[in-house]
Amino acid sequence: MKAIIWGSCGSLPAPSTSASIRQKVRDAIWAAREHQFENLAAVDAYLETLPHCARGTYKANTSCVQIKANTDEYIFCDAGTGLRDFALSLGKDSAPATYHIFISHLHWDHIQGFPFFTPAYQAGNRIIFHGFHKETERALRAQMEAPCFPVPFEAMQAEIEFDIQENGASFQVGDIQISTIKQQHPGDSWGYCFEENGKRIIYSSDSEHGPEARKEGYHFVDFFQNADVLIFDGQYTFEEATNEKRYWGHSDHMTAVELSARAKVRQLIVFHHEPAYTDTEIEEIHKDALSYSEEYNQRLSNNTNNTTYPQRIELAFDGLEIEA
Ligand SMILES: [Zn+2]
Ligand SMILES: [Zn+2]
């Protein structure tokens, strides 16, 4: 099982500007001024040595993560603008298929890709929205109403179903078991844990963890326990999350590290980036979290063997694939 990130930016799409791309190109050319390149493969090898912020970006599309498992049916978490890039990757004339979309909540950045999801316009496809918000169908229809969008929801030819459950429910797709957790976020949100053949991938975006998260027995530590991959809302710095942005419904890189270490998560993927930060700023916050992870593990590890958790911490970016 693996997760594919199609959209990782928080709140709204925040693609690179011409000015920021020019600066990256300028810096990369300058950094390479002493190198001789025999061919393009050598250029590619050199690019691999640069930090991601120098050759790519963390921010483009809004939340959309594909869970690739041992089934012909497609599984997604959220329908942000990343869903459109997935649809483009299918090409024309894709075979009829079933798409499951697990919705964390209905804020616009998590549903705004759906009007551009071409499989929804093709008869023969089946799309099932799973989630907990009673207003799910109404919100998806409303964002396509005039004067906001030119094509009405009714123009979609696929069979579209809504599987809306009560809090505490779990789901199943083929052999994949999906457990859920209610999260603290304005209007509520839900996290999803996908389990197949003993591997677990958890999608937990738009979720705030206040001071109660530091107490013994915090229920998210149980939910995250031994996850192979945890995709976690790290929009803010710890200072922001605990001060001026408290109750805004998001978490931070330090809390991501602490909860993952306590839950012995193997791979932590920090997700839902703050659109106001530059790629360089996001990497700076990440570096602080990496050193905090070492310090925090030493504090925790009086008790256990010397294994450090999480074993890998990475920033999500569109196109990143993570094997469970
Ligand atoms: Zn969001
Ligand atoms: Zn939200």
Which small molecules are bound?
A: zinc ion
What gross morphology would you assign? Answer: globular
Supply the helix-strand structural class.
alpha/beta
User: What's the Cα radius of gyration?
Assistant: 20 Å
CATH-level-2 architecture of the largest domain: 4-Layer Sandwich
- Kindly report the name of the CATH homologous superfamily of the largest domain: Ribonuclease Z/Hydroxyacylglutathione hydrolase-like
Note the beta-strand portion: 15-25%
| String of helices and strands | EHHHEEHEEHEEEEEHEHHEHEE
Distance between the termini: 6 Å
Sequence-ordered SSE layout with sheet pairings:
Layout lengths: L1 E6 L10 H14 L8 H10 L2 H4 L8 E5 L5 E4 L4 H9 L7 E5 L23 E6 L4 H7 L16 E6 L6 E3 L2 E8 L5 E8 L2 E6 L14 H6 L4 E5 L4 H5 L10 H10 L4 E5 L7 H22 L11 E4 L5 E3 L1
Parallel strand pairs: 3-4, 4-5, 5-6, 10-11, 11-12, 12-13
Antiparallel strand pairs: 1-2, 1-14, 2-3, 7-8, 8-9, 9-10
Protein name: MBL fold metallo-hydrolase
Pfam family, one: Lactamase_B_2
InterPro entries: Metallo-B-lactamas, RibonucZ/Hydroxyglut_hydro
Characterise the protein shown here.
By secondary structure, the protein is α/β, with parallel strands linked by helices. The protein folds into 2 domains: 2-15 and 57-323, Metallo-beta-lactamase, Chain A (4-Layer Sandwich), CATH 3.60.15.10; 18-55, no CATH class. Helix content is 27%, strand content 23%. It has 9 helices and 14 strands. The protein has helices at 18-31, 40-49, 52-55, 82-90, 136-142, 219-224, 238-242, 253-262, 279-300, and strands at 2-7, 64-68, 74-77, 98-102, 126-131, 159-164, 171-173, 176-183, 189-196, 199-204, 229-233, 267-271, 312-315, 321-323. The protein has a 7-stranded mixed beta sheet with strand order 6-5-4-3-2-1-14. The chain has a 7-stranded mixed beta sheet with strand order 7-8-9-10-11-12-13. A hairpin with a 5-residue loop joins strand 8 and strand 9. Helix 8 runs parallel beside helix 9. It is globular. The mean pLDDT is 95. One zinc ion binds at residues 10-11, 63, 107, 109-110, 206, 272. One zinc ion is lined by residues 105, 107, 185, 206, 249.
